[in-house]
Amino acid sequence: MTRTRRPVALFLMLSSLHWLASSDEVPAVNSRGAPKRPVLQPKETAPPQVTYTLKNLKGEVCVRASLGVEFVVRENKKKYYFNLDPRSTQATGNCRNQKSVLSFVFAGGNLEFTFIKDGDVSYVRTITGLLIPAPTCKNCQNKTYIGIVDHEKLFSAKNGLSFQCKSETTLILSDNLRLKLVPLQIQAFDLAGGAFGKEVECWEDYNKRMIPIVLGAVAAAICLIAILTYVLVREHRGRGYEQL
User: Which spans are transmembrane here (predicted)?
Assistant: First the structure.
């Protein structure tokens, strides 16, 4: 979070230069009338899940993302929420052989994913977020929230496969700005026919799926041990009676 205008101006200037330099830019839709700023909500609700696609100059789908996006703002020890509205969001960006950028542009904010292809694996290296919401009260000041997750290997999958996570994914972009993605399926590079490849399951989903199986197996093993113990004890007592 910052209260000064310099970081905001710098962020917007760099973003503008990036898109101007991109040869694969998908132009944003012009909104009618004055743009409305994001309105923070005191209560959390599930964000709508929408599928976004980005095409290269050949008209081929180069990035595909199906997700629900929620911004979480922490201010004065309180939490406020803003769900990305697909009706007022434009997916834009560019695709290259080793690097692709997918950006969600909306009035009062921006969310950008940078994909990297490294050998036979692709992943998200950088996520940047910008949110300029309307004040939360009548006399509250205007505030801007900026955050970034950089130099990471998020949502990693082999080429031709998609990363999927039905569980909630929370990313800390800054001290006062968090990002929740739920559910999530995402893929850049090597999309056959523009469709998602076979899913790579996240650890959270794997644990949720495996824990009941493991607990069930443990319970079954305990029951089997109890039954065998009972049978052996009963057989041992029966032999003792025969000797008498």
Answer: 210-233
The two three-digit tokens of residue 240, written as one number: 């003792």
Q: Give the number of C-alpha atoms closer than 13 A to the C-alpha of residue 83, restricted to the C-beta side.
A: 16
Residues above pLDDT 90, as percent of the chain: 64
Three-state DSSP state, 188? strand
Whether 62 shows a pLDDT value over 60: the answer reads: yes
Residue 82, pLDDT above cutoff 90: yes
Predicted confidence (pLDDT) per residue in 129-140, tens digit = 999 999 988 888
Compute and round to an integer the Cα radius of gyration of the chain.
26
- Report the pLDDT averaged over residues 51-65: 95
Tell me the torsion sign for CA atoms 219, 225, 227, 230. negative
Residues near 220 by Cβ (< 8 Å), separated by ≥ 6? none
Structure tokens at 61: 């789908």
| Residues ≥6 apart with Cβ < 8 Å to 72 | 44, 79, 80, 81, 170, 177, 178, 179, 180
Structure tokens at 221: 């093993």
Q: Which two tokens stand for residue 232?
A: 């052996």
